[in-house]
Amino acid sequence: MTSDGGDPLLLLTLATVLLAAALALGRLRPRWPLWLHLAWRVASFAVLTILVQRLLVSPISPQYGPVGSGRYLWEHVVEAGWWLFAARVGVTCVRFLVVLEHRPRETQMVSDLVAGGIYLATLLAIVNFVFAVPIAGLLATSGVIAIVLGLASQNTLADVFSGIAVGVERPYKAGDIIWVEGNIEGHVVQVTWRSTHIATFQNTVAIVPNSVMAKARLINRSLPEPARGDAIEIRLDAAAPPDQCIMTLLAAARAALLPLAVPAPSVACTALGGDGASYEVSYSVASSALLESARSELLTQIHRHLRHAGIALAVVGVGSPGRVPVPTPTDILEHSDLFGMLEGASRQLLAERFEPLWLQAGEALFREGETPQYLFLVAAGVVEITRADATGPQIIHRMSPGESLGAIGLITGAQYRATATALTPVKVFRQDKAALAAAVAAAPTLLAGLEALAERGRAVLERDTAAHHQRPEEPEELRFRLRNFLKLLNAS
How far from chain centre, in Å, is Cα 83? Predict the structure, then answer.
């Protein structure tokens, strides 16, 4: 029967077509924005409700046609479709609220749980209102089954509900860097119903049950910001003056490029003992992903600076391991990537003509565009190499003890392409053209070594200028400068 005497077959046909259209458009337009899906379903559901009311008087208390007829079965199908469509509209509303609140991906589990509850309630409503089957006994039976299943799968359920708690509380989200008790650290890839997936810095994926995540101690490295602080403890010779150790370690920390300049690295003496003194070098990096690389770079710089300062590492149970020999200009030249190719006698001649020079932080060894006058060997401290561009000085390199600068410019006469400034108190050895000429006069074979050295330096300069989009000097132009300089040395 119908509430207003309309044609039942026409109403059934319209309701069926509307249900089919709603289902088909949901499949054919999966890329519709969620708000458009919601608007379409609400409008369709309103029209369907009007049709069902005119056909069955009320979707809650339907009045079907003659029992046993095809229309009777058809009306049951339409009534069941109305309840399912109502459930779809309710689920879409929940999804839409999640999107409006900008919830993270893992919070989708909460909406999935609500959707599951809506569909379960809809199934029970269909059984009760559409087919007029009492559900009291069904609920009692399902309760017993639920208890049995819950006891059998309590671990899985603990993971599921812990995952829901994580989604609601939001202690972390996909993309965050977290540390989990048990020495697990890395990026959160995703949070599923059962577990949290963490991509570790060892290029592996740790899958941790949500129940474990809920009980374990967590540290979110991405909050309140991704910058990460760390510290390295170093034990040094107890006989070494603490002031000198702190200055040397601080210079090593400032020589590293990966640690952040703000907050600046710091060094503190944390303990004194008969077999060594402990120092803590604190620093920060932009993100935890850089932590391992920054630590390696910092340890390398610490080793280099301690060696050139003559400070030994402490040995457990030993009062003093003795001072480390401070490298001389001869030692620096021998271990230099640039001057190591020279013969031993030639290196010795060069080393004898270096003179020491001390600079305070902020003083310049030379500036971009100046004509080279000296060859420098860094003996202590940090020298920062910068190049000016449209945005201001750009850091090219930070030179530590044992490195040399100005050699190619001095030999070829090419102007400095960068500025060298003392970043910390610095000690350098320097040698001018006159001293170099005296060394060549004493050992003419040094000419061949200097020419090979300049050729090697030319290749380095070409790579550097290409990296900064500058025009490299032609090989013949550089050779011409080199040979003119060598002739002047030879003539002198």
Answer: 48
